[in-house]
């Protein structure tokens, strides 16, 4: 589940659905949001759809850049990189969407924490095999992405090592899940304050077994800066190496 909380209103968006549709345009507590998921990069990112007084609606172009989802907005048909939220080409090229804080959690955790929370259901109007993983076996840590990406020879981490990716000020940090699973908490002192990254088990990989619910436990992260939740994502390493090659890896 991708969980988004705005003004104490929490909503959950099952990855079983997002794996097939990749983008949900919604509104939470009067804030228009785009909930996005790129299966090939394992990037679950939520954006505020407001930009310069307009409210944009997003769809998938069917294209990839560095194996990452390329979105388009229906007003100007500009193309946007999902990983960064930046417009690549079109009228809005160079503009950037504001990322909102979101987490990946299990259904059980969401149900227990938000018993009145709303969940996107499977009555989408489309016929899809929700719950089935069309990328079975893709989540193998040493395997390469389906398509070649820049800096594919950056072997500081295995290609599909999950990392907690977070930007703080002008800096970016990647904390490997392998280190987090061992230490549970990693603290980074930044110019903006104390960055705390935590990991807990209980979340299944959506890209492992044929049935998503049967995926192995890969856990999930939480990230805070001086005690306050901040936006982050959990991409595979190859996507970070391609799209943010100056990244600092923090593993202790």
Structure description:
11% of the residues lie in helices and 39% in strands. The protein is mostly beta strands and 252 residues long. It has 2 domains: 2-119, Rieske Iron-sulfur Protein (3-layer Sandwich); 163-249, no CATH class. The protein has a 4-stranded mixed β-sheet. Strands 3-4-5-12 form a 4-stranded antiparallel β-sheet. Strands 8-9-10-11 form a 4-stranded antiparallel β-sheet, with no helix packed on it. The protein starts with a strand and ends with a strand.
How is the quaternary structure best described?
A: single chain
- Average pLDDT score: 97
Instruction: Report the portion of residues in β strands.
Output: 35-45%
The description of the largest β-sheet is: 4 strands, mixed
Distance between the termini: 28 Å
Helix content bin? 10-25%
Question: And the CATH topology of the largest domain?
Answer: Rieske Iron-sulfur Protein
What series of H and E elements makes up the topology?
EEHEEEEEEEEEEEHEEEHEEEEHE
Number of domain modules? 2
- What is the strand tally? 21
Number of DSSP helical runs: 4
Computed Rg: 17 Å
Which of globular, elongated, flat, extended, rod-shaped describes the shape?
globular
Strands side by side in the biggest sheet:
13-1-2-14
């Amino acid at each position: 589940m991708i969980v988004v909380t705005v003004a104490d209103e929490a909503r959950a968006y099952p990855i079983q659905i997002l794996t097939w549709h990749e983008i949900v345009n919604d509104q939470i507590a009067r804030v228009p949001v785009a909930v996005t998921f790129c299966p090939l990069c394992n990037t679950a990112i939520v954006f505020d759809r407001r930009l310069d007084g307009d409210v944009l609606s997003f769809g998938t172009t069917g294209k990839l850049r560095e194996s990452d989802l390329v979105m388009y907005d229906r007003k100007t048909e500009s193309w946007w990189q999902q990983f960064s939220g930046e417009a690549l080409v079109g009228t809005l090229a160079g503009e950037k969407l504001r990322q909102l804080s979101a987490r990946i959690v299990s259904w059980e955790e969401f149900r227990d924490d938000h018993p009145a929370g709303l969940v996107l259901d499977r009555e989408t109007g489309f016929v899809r095999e929700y719950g089935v993983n069309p990328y079975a076996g893709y989540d193998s840590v040493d395997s390469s992405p389906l398509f070649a990406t820049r800096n594919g020879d950056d072997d500081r981490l295995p290609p599909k090592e999950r990392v907690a990716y977070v930007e703080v000020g002008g800096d970016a940090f990647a904390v490997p899940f392998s280190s987090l699973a061992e230490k549970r908490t990693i603290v980074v002192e930044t110019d903006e304050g104390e960055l705390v990254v935590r990991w807990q088990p209980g979340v299944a990989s959506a890209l492992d077994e044929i049935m998503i619910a049967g995926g192995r436990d890969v856990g999930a992260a939480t990230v805070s800066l001086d005690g306050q939740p901040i936006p982050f994502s959990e991409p595979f390493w190859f996507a970070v190496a391609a799209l943010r090659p100056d990244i600092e890896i923090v593993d202790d």
